[in-house]
Amino acid sequence: MTAVNVTKTIKVTAKDAWETISSFEGIEKFSPVARSVKTGEGVGALRSCFMPDDAEIKEELTGLNNEKMHLQYIITSGPFPFTDYVSDVLVKEVSETTCEVSWSSQFIVNEGVPEAAMVELLEGFYNAIMQGLEELVPA
User: Fold this and answer.
1) Following DSSP, what letter does each residue of 14-37 receive, concatenated?
2) How many domains would you assign to the chain?
3) The domain spanning residue 42 has which CATH number?
4) What is the DSSP letter of 125?
5) 38-92 pLDDT, tens per residue?
6) Which of 10, 44, 49, 57 could form a disulfide with 134 if both were Cys (CB 3.0 to 4.6 A apart)?
7) Residue 116 CB coordination number (10 Å)
8) Could you tell me if 5 and 130 are in contact, meaning their C-beta atoms sit under 8 angstroms apart?
9) What pLDDT is attached to residue 9?
10) Do 79 and 57 form a contact (C-beta atoms < 8 A)?
11) Which class for 100: exposed (0-12), middle (13-18), buried (19 or more C-beta within 10 A)?
12) What is the per-residue burial (b if ≥16 Cβ within 10 Å, else e) of 51-69?
């Protein structure tokens, strides 16, 4: 099992960051995703994310704890050379105007695929999400 974790303090209130992330929609507003479509609400909601090349990533919200500001989702299908992807997102208040966002995942890299390349890809994606979130939501 391969694990990736990116934790960053951003200039966004924890409340605003959590509201944006936990809605499980509109991820294209703060990530490299070109567009997304969400169906359903709460745990069990489904999201299809389309990359700029129109590749589709299908995700399912599997955990949502508003009190702890923790969200979990899985990738059910997509163009990536890995399986069993589970991601956890956690938001923690640092101050009135900043929060810490931790985006982590675990997955199994397909045989013959360099693990380091998948770690680098996901670290870049999570960093882009956090930068986009900081730019989208003013503190």
Assistant:
1) HHHHHHHHHT---GGGSSS-SEEE
2) 1
3) 3.30.530.20
4) H
5) 999 999 999 999 999 999 999 999 999 999 999 999 999 999 999 999 999 999 9
6) 10
7) 10
8) no
9) 96
10) yes
11) middle
12) eeeeeebebbbeebeeeeb
